[in-house]
């Protein structure tokens, strides 16, 4: 079984003169137990690819398969359940709730999903990311790098099979990049998850099993 697959995916925004082709005939697969990196410059289509991969937006044409199921054939409700139960998103906009303290962001997950990480596993992640002293703060009180690490913990907390990360290290210094790279690799190699990271941060290359390059919406595998 293939965990994630894109087959001949195109994404076109707008029409006429303002038309932008963000993805062109993209083919991609990702399996459990692997960390895949997609590298590309700003505007190359990384966020578009990642959000299509996780069913957050639809492709113009082509197939998007999650665990061999064509996402376009699912109802809105089924797509929502799939995202809730199987996919952990770390998005560029961080998706933290502004009026909740960090601790409460995690508690919120408990209200919609039961089988989240045990307290023990979660505190190991919190320790690794060095965010234990931030749990009583509001998102507005955090630096960019702190927000980024909390968004990562928040995505891992529901223990998803698939982790999709958009520039998870953009705001981090080199030491933290190693921590996050190692954590994402452990999620793949030890916890057997499918981890896909889109980034322009080449510091993450050493942690990846597979590497793709995205240039002007064209994807090619380089490792
Ligand atoms: N909702 C949208 N409507 C119109 N054009 C869009 C939309 N989203 C993205 N685009 C365009 O598609 C192209 C790819 O955008 P995308 O956000 O995927 O790039 P990116 O590689 O993630 O860039 P960055 O590194 O800056 O985050 C860009 O030309 C962008 O302007
Ligand atoms: Mg982006």
UniProtKB/TrEMBL annotation:
UniProt keyword Amino-acid biosynthesis, yes or no: no
GO cellular component, one term: plasma membrane
Pfam family, one: ABC_tran
Keywords linked to the UniProt accession: ATP-binding, Cell membrane, Membrane, Nucleotide-binding, Transport
SUPFAM superfamilies linked to this entry: P-loop containing nucleoside triphosphate hydrolases (SSF52540)
GO molecular function, one term: ATP hydrolysis activity
Main location as per UniProt: membrane
Membrane topology, as annotated: Peripheral membrane protein
SMART domains noted in UniProt: AAA
Database matches in CDD domains: ABC_MJ0796_LolCDE_FtsE
Span of domain ABC transporter: 4-222
Record localization: Cell membrane
Keyword Zinc-finger belongs to the record: no
Chain's role: Part of the ABC transporter complex hrt involved in hemin import. Responsible for energy coupling to the transport system.
Family: Belongs to the ABC transporter superfamily. HrtA family.
Protein name (record): Putative hemin import ATP-binding protein HrtA
Protein source organism: Weissella minor
Lineage: Bacteria, Bacillati, Bacillota, Bacilli, Lactobacillales
């Amino acid at each position: 079984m293939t965990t994630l697959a894109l087959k001949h995916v195109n994404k076109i925004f707008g029409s006429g003169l303002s038309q932008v082709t963000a993805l062109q005939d993209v083919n991609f697969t990702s399996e459990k137990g692997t960390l895949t990196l997609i590298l590309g410059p700003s505007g190359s289509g990384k966020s578009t690819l990642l959000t299509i991969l996780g069913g957050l937006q639809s492709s113009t044409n082509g197939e998007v398969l999650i665990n061999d199921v064509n996402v376009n054939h699912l109802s809105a409700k089924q797509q929502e359940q799939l995202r809730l139960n199987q996919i952990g998103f770390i998005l560029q906009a961080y998706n933290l709730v502004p009026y909740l303290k960090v601790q409460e962001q995690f508690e919120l997950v408990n209200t919609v999903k039961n089988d989240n990480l045990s307290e023990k596993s979660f505190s190991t992640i919190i320790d690794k990311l060095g965010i234990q002293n931030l749990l009583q703060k509001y998102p507005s009180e955090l630096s960019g790098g702190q927000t980024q690490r909390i968004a990562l913990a928040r995505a891992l907390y529901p223990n998803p099979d698939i982790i999709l990360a958009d520039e998870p290290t953009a705001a981090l210094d080199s030491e933290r990049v190693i921590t996050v790279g190692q954590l994402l690799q452990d999620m793949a190699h030890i916890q057997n998850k499918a981890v896909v990271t889109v980034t322009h941060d080449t510091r993450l290359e050493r942690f990846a099993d597979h590497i793709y390059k995205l240039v002007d919406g064209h994807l090619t595998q380089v490792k």
